[in-house]
Amino acid sequence: MITPRAVPPRFMNDQQLRDHFGLGDRALTRLRATRQFPPRDELINKTDRRAVELFFDRRAGIASPVAAAGGLAAVDGEENWND
Known about the structure:
Blueprint: E1 11-12, H1 14-21, H2 25-32, E2 47-48, H3 49-60, H4 65-68
Antiparallel strand pairs: 1-2
């Protein structure tokens, strides 16, 4: 029987980010110093794991469906306010 893998949390503190992405303390510090790395949310002091995944995808040159959509999580059509 195959056991399902635990889904990582969407928002992670620095220790969780280091464990999930295999980063060292110095590596995460250097990434945080770049302008493109996703910042911590000021209210909960955690970083969006999905935004970090997209950061690494862009850095590796991998086109993801979310990045191709201009960073939107879902591509919506034009709004029709008349209906």
